[in-house]
Amino acid sequence: MIVDTQTAHFESLPLDCGVQLSPVEVAYETWGELNGDASNAILIAHAFSGDAHAAGIHQRTGRPGWWDNMIGPGKAFDTNRFFVICSNILGGCAGTTGPSSINPATGEPYAMRFPVITVPDIVRLQRLLMDHLGIARLLCVAGGSMGGMQALEWAVAYPERVASVIPIATTHRHSAQQIAFNEVGRQAIMADPDWNGGDYYQTGRRPARGLAVARMVGHITYMSDASMKAKFGRKLRDKASPAFDFSAEFEVESYLRYRGSQFVDRFDANSYLYITKAMDYFDLSAGRGSLAAALERTQARCLLISFSSDWLYPSYQSQEIVRALRSRNRDVAYVELNSDYGHDAFLVTVEEQAEIVRGFLHSTARLVGA
Amino acid sequence: MIVDTQTAHFESLPLDCGVQLSPVEVAYETWGELNGDASNAILIAHAFSGDAHAAGIHQRTGRPGWWDNMIGPGKAFDTNRFFVICSNILGGCAGTTGPSSINPATGEPYAMRFPVITVPDIVRLQRLLMDHLGIARLLCVAGGSMGGMQALEWAVAYPERVASVIPIATTHRHSAQQIAFNEVGRQAIMADPDWNGGDYYQTGRRPARGLAVARMVGHITYMSDASMKAKFGRKLRDKASPAFDFSAEFEVESYLRYRGSQFVDRFDANSYLYITKAMDYFDLSAGRGSLAAALERTQARCLLISFSSDWLYPSYQSQEIVRALRSRNRDVAYVELNSDYGHDAFLVTVEEQAEIVRGFLHSTARLVGA
């Protein structure tokens, strides 16, 4: 399944902060075929550091997609039956307009002059893309982590345009602890002198050290105590006893340093700031009375999934959403899957998740006649 | 209870890394009176960022001690009955020899030329201090977090010199996750150009930003999801709606920034590196066969305490120690206290803890005739 990234262009996008962003580009990929009445389309919403390349082998890079184990012919998101779309989010750095894009008004990168964006803004742009693709109503919007926030926002903001949602390992709003971890990442980036107030695109010096530290914190929160124990324990790297120095002696240290430095090559530090801010701002109930009142608006069938060892987006957060949906008699199914993989489980532990998603999509398709 | 910090001087200290550190100074404070047969002495071992000022009001600074709610006349560590000592640990930055001390060989601060130290080194220096004070056998060694590691090491390394230990919210060795959080802190410091390879004492520029980021991560791990929710939730600072900028908008953000910057004024970045490394190296079982074989050496009565919401030093780590002690028929009591305060609970939630410690100390004193 070879795939290439495409780009759609839009004249402008109104943002929650009041700014009209103009123009806007969206990078996206698709798999499978849209059927005659455009009723078999599924939007995959990616997580914080994801991109449009969710499945297949990328034509130029040869890389597999980040959810390739879930999307493809015969897989949970079955591309023999469904037309699957994934787009890079607004504010991102993988083809969609974000802080590293050129501001047409100045001919220079926006950097920190990019307007602050929100999850509703991100979803509003996805809706433009659906218009562009001729999809009046999505069969499903699915995603994990920040992708789950987008699925929830779709369900509530555009009830007539989505038949079902699958929010996975997510929350209707960040807790203080979740905001705190994001804030540490932001401060690590902004503490790096090479960040230079965001204007590093033309200096030849990116805030690589700050961004790497931010990513290291992230990686700890994506794993669990148990999965780190299983993967690293207290194993030393290439030696039997400690060297009494400050090199990366423990395997977990060298892993984190590696993942940190690797991230710097593929992610933009200003996008890190803007997207984490959008996550922290997200509150599905804001301006809608309460969580239950917000969710009452949806007409979508809802499937929520959480993972037992996920301490970054703990199961109680999914359960709050489930309770609110039930309180308003919405159609909701929920499952907590056992896994040691922590928050990463939605990307890693897929067998049970795949079966549940498969069944849910097929029954939804039957119901809506897709 | 006005108190001043005193200093003891020692000619040299042999370290696990093979170096003889010379000379060595130890800052310490004492409360209460040593009795005639020196049988009523209790050593308080401080945690990572603590110091010798555990109780009372400091003569010069006017500050209360970090465990003032536990130590004093009529308190859990009752200074009407016991002679209580607390010393700043080796490698620290509050009066005991550490990386910011002057290396007599060069006349300049050691900085990263300070030898790598271990928890057994820290305890070896405490033992010298006990010799200096004429205390052949301690009634108790007590401490939380890294202080608990020191209590455990005392129990195993010097069984004839300690009648009881109270390791609180601690572990016999760090997990991969605990090492990972420490490594993030170290990387944040070393990523700061002002760290300058550790040689910042004479540049007039300390690695304040890196150290602040490290401390922010620390603070998140010391609290719990529930305590952060209770203290901050999603409250905005001085406003009702988001400003759409990158200022500290959420109260939790401004709290973390404040605690980070405050820490910089009182703590040395190189001490941060050395002490976290000592914590990561600590393994009570290393060179002793197994945890149970190590703990079999102790003659001390043991009281272990952990806290239900402490996810940095989870209860299962205390329970591993308790099981190992029981497997070798050692004298051990254990209690998990309910608290929402996370790892900080040993400093914050003291009523139940105080009652348990009080009873344990009095029965130990009766047993040994103190």
Order of helices and strands of chain A: EEEEEEEEEEEEHEHEHHHHHHEHEHH
Based on CA inertia axes, which overall geometry of chain A fits? globular
Query: Which assembly state applies to the chains in this document?
Result: homodimer
Spans of chain A of at least 5 consecutive residues whose pLDDT stays below 50 are none
Largest interface: A-B, 56 and 56 residues
Helicity range of chain A: 25-40%
Strand arrangement across the biggest beta sheet of chain A: 2-5-10-6-13-14-15-16
Number of domains of chain A: 2
Sheet having the most strands of chain A: 8 strands, mixed
Tally of extended strands of chain A? 16
* Share of β-strand residues of chain A: 15-25%
What's the layout of helices and strands?
Two copies of one chain form a homodimer.
Chain A: E1 2-3, E2 6-10, E3 13-14, E4 20-21, E5 24-31, E6 41-44, E7 57-58, E8 71-72, E9 77-78, E10 83-87, E11 102-103, E12 108-109, H1 119-132, E13 140-144, H2 146-157, E14 164-168, H3 176-190, H4 208-222, H5 225-231, H6 251-264, H7 269-281, H8 291-296, E15 301-307, H9 315-327, E16 332-337, H10 345-348, H11 351-368
Parallel strand pairs in A: 1-7, 6-10, 6-13, 8-9, 13-14, 14-15, 15-16
Antiparallel strand pairs in A: 2-5, 3-4, 5-10, 11-12
Characterization of the model:
- 2 copies of one chain form a homodimer.
- Chain A has 370 residues and is of the alpha/beta class.
- Chain A has 2 domains: 2-174 and 284-368, Alpha/Beta hydrolase fold, catalytic domain (Rossmann fold, 3-Layer(aba) Sandwich), CATH 3.40.50; 178-276, Rna Polymerase Sigma Factor, Chain: A (Orthogonal Bundle), CATH 1.10.1740.110.
- Helices cover 35% and strands 16% of the residues of chain A.
- Chain A is built from 11 helices and 16 strands.
- Chain A has helices at 119-132, 146-157, 176-190, 208-222, 225-231, 251-264, 269-281, 291-296, 315-327, 345-348, 351-368, and strands at residues 2-3, 6-10, 13-14, 20-21, 24-31, 41-44, 57-58, 71-72, 77-78, 83-87, 102-103, 108-109, 140-144, 164-168, 301-307, 332-337.
- In chain A, the strands form 5 sheets. In chain A, strands 2-5-10-6-13-14-15-16 form an 8-stranded mixed sheet, with helices on both faces. In chain A, strands 1-7 form a two-stranded parallel sheet. A two-stranded antiparallel ribbon of chain A has the order 3-4.
- At the A-B interface, helix 3, helix 4, helix 5, helix 6 and helix 7 of A face helix 3, helix 4, helix 5, helix 6 and helix 7 of B.
